[in-house]
Amino acid sequence: xxxxxxxxxxxxxxxxxxxxxxxxxxxxxxxxxxxxxxxxxxxxxxxxxxxxxxxxxxxxxxxxxxxxxxxxxxxxxxxxxxxxxxxxxxxxxxxxxxxxxxxxxxxxxxxxxxxxxxxxxxxxxxxxxxxxxxxxxxxxxxxxxxxxxxxxxxxxxxxxxxxxxxxxxxxxxxxxxxxxxxxxxxxxxxxxxxxxxxxxxxxxxxxxxxxxxxxx
Length: 216
Hints:
Pfam families: adh_short (PF00106). GO terms for molecular function: sepiapterin reductase (NADP+) activity. InterPro entries: Biopterin_syn/organic_redct, NAD(P)-bd_dom_sf, SDR_fam. It is a single chain. It contains eight helices and six strands, in the order βαβαβαβααβαααβ. It is of the alpha/beta class. The protein has two domains: 1-100, NAD(P)-binding Rossmann-like Domain (Rossmann fold); 109-216, Rossmann fold (3-Layer(aba) Sandwich). It has helices at residues 16-28, 42-47, 70-83, 116-126, 128-141, 158-165, 170-181, 188-201, and strands at 6-11, 34-39, 57-62, 93-97, 148-151, 208-211. The strands form two sheets. It has a four-stranded parallel sheet with strand order 3-2-1-4. The protein has a two-stranded parallel ribbon with strand order 5-6. Strand 1 (6-11), helix 1 (16-28) and strand 2 form a beta-alpha-beta unit.
């Protein structure tokens, strides 16, 4: 898949796993491909440097996945393509990586969350189980579309650090602190390298859930 002219879109690409995913595709796809990175933090994406990119066209744009306004969503990629003179006919395939997530306020238990807007924001961004079932349905209804649900394992990211230091549940804090101390957390690069191997081997059934610890 990496040799084809590809339009690759990665959400949540300003840090952690998302930034790592984008970099792997930037380093592996053909030079006439395009990688579009989306995140709420454009400055972080613009500041990123890539040591040996194989892709010539690397773009970034602001995207807040919690904004579910239909016009905002529908115009996003249309505007990016128009502004950069990109046509869908330029590509042999499209790759979409849904990675964006938000921890929200983890210093509180659910019983302490009385702000409806805060709760809604978490659901709008993080409906992981529902998203996985949706993609399984996409795989069945659109057999020409390859769908992979990848679980990266426990990775040492900024979000993981917040879990170790800010979460209200002391048991969870202790668990992740111990995992970090004992070196049991994965680096983003280690986990995403496994994901790229899964994509390269292409042995999974469309819609499958593949975990980092699964054997290829």
